[in-house]
Amino acid sequence: MSESQHPRWRTGDIVAMGLAAALVVGAGGTGLVAAARAIEDSTAAADTTTTQSDTASTTQGPTTQLYGGRGSGGPTGGYGGASSGTTTATLDTTAATAEQSVGVVVIDTVLGYESAEAAGTGLILTADGRILTNNHVVEGATSITVTVVSTGLDYTAEVVGTDATEDIAVLELVDASGLAVADLDTADLDTADLDTSGDVTVGAAVTGVGNAGGTGTLTAAAGTVLSLEQAITAQDSDGSDAEDLTGLIEVDADIESGESGGPLYDADGEVIGITTAASSGSTDITGYAIPIEDALEIVAAIDAAVAAGADTDTDTDTDTDTITVGYPAFLGIGLGTGQSALVAGVIADTPAAAIGLAAGDTITAVDGAAVTTATALSTALAGHDPGDTVTIDWADAAGAAHTASATLIAGPAG
């Protein structure tokens, strides 16, 4: 892992248990692009802006510093800021076995607009390289590299679709369809053994496997199922961008940052969940995983949306209003926190920069339709695809009116 690269993680509160414990899962970089995504992405209301945090590399029997718990906010929100203190926990982990590594990938992302890198974990769903991971693992990514752990082969990955509210993303490896060919000296991609029976029980033995610390080496953390159908509010380590997740499996395994998107195995070695969060603030770490059957429902909804060529779907029981297919259209601005669509900043080498938008400008219309709020601007841009040309009207800080056409580009993932 490079010096600027960090494992993906988040913090949050355990809602169902009425506790105020920090939840840890990923780390990325804050910056102007986060504000731009929040305005331009059709899933803006559910986006989780990530923050950077150094986490110690993990080996067998290490100690690592985790962020302490946050303020004593209630179970529905109103949380305090992240504590500046840390808790040192001795982690009960081992190196993952070859069997546990089958079907698991390491995900490395470049957050090009944020001058940062990040890392996480994923699962291979199909032999031609369909990958399942958490949305926050790839959120903000401008390029994604996936390493198949069992073979050591690296692939470029593209985003098939994401659902930020359910924290699920589907990736596709580029040119992964001929991996069984002899001249590659490898077999087909191994597919993780998925348990979709839904018969997970409290007290059952489990093992979480993932790219702990973002080092590129898989570790395994054994534990037991503490409870089912748990609800948590996950958010950034600075206490912002809360996101509710429900129906989770709660385990007492020492899940670490960087393991987001990795498998939670049962005693038979079948995947029963996708790791998405873990508590910190004490010497006891509690992990949370999305049940595999729930994750696969979202995958099916994403696939249906891709097939339909739209961001909505009526053929499944899953609400797909929050699904984004591929990469969102991107203008390249960050907006202020006020009532109007005031531009807080412009990202270099984006359509916004090309047409001359600048900090202090106020966008007043898109394609002739008036926009008076950030939400209205989000709605106006959400229906467009990369490559679409839109007409932007704005007033500069001096009040002068401007109009220009901007060709939207593919924005960062998530």
Secondary-structure map:
Blueprint: E1 5-7, E2 11-13, E3 22-24, H1 32-40, E4 63-67, E5 86-90, E6 94-95, H2 98-101, E7 104-111, E8 116-124, E9 130-133, H3 135-138, E10 143-148, E11 154-163, E12 168-173, E13 205-210, E14 219-235, E15 243-251, E16 263-266, E17 271-280, E18 287-291, H4 292-308, E19 323-325, E20 329-330, E21 333-335, E22 343-346, H5 351-355, E23 362-366, E24 369-370, H6 374-382, E25 389-395, E26 401-407, E27 409-410
Parallel strand pairs: 1-8
Antiparallel strand pairs: 2-14, 3-17, 4-5, 6-14, 7-8, 7-10, 8-9, 9-12, 10-11, 11-12, 11-19, 13-14, 13-16, 14-15, 15-18, 16-17, 17-18, 20-27, 21-22, 23-24, 23-25, 25-26
Brief descriptors of the model:
414 residues; mainly beta; Thrombin, subunit H; Pdz3 Domain; 2 domains; six-stranded antiparallel beta barrel; 6 helices; elongated
Report on the architecture of this protein.
Belongs to the peptidase S1C family. Residues 326-375 form the PDZ domain. The chain is mainly beta. It has 2 domains: 1-326, Beta Barrel (Thrombin, subunit H); 329-410, Roll (Pdz3 Domain), CATH 2.30.42.10. It is built from 6 helices and 27 strands. It has helices spanning 32-40, 98-101, 135-138, 292-308, 351-355, 374-382; strands spanning 5-7, 11-13, 22-24, 63-67, 86-90, 94-95, 104-111, 116-124, 130-133, 143-148, 154-163, 168-173, 205-210, 219-235, 243-251, 263-266, 271-280, 287-291, 323-325, 329-330, 333-335, 343-346, 362-366, 369-370, 389-395, 401-407, 409-410. The strands form 6 sheets. It has a 6-stranded antiparallel barrel. Strands 13-14-15-18-17-16 form a 6-stranded antiparallel barrel. A 4-stranded antiparallel sheet has the order 24-23-25-26. β14 and β15 (243-251) form a beta hairpin. The longest helix is centred in the last third of the chain and has 17 residues, at 292-308.
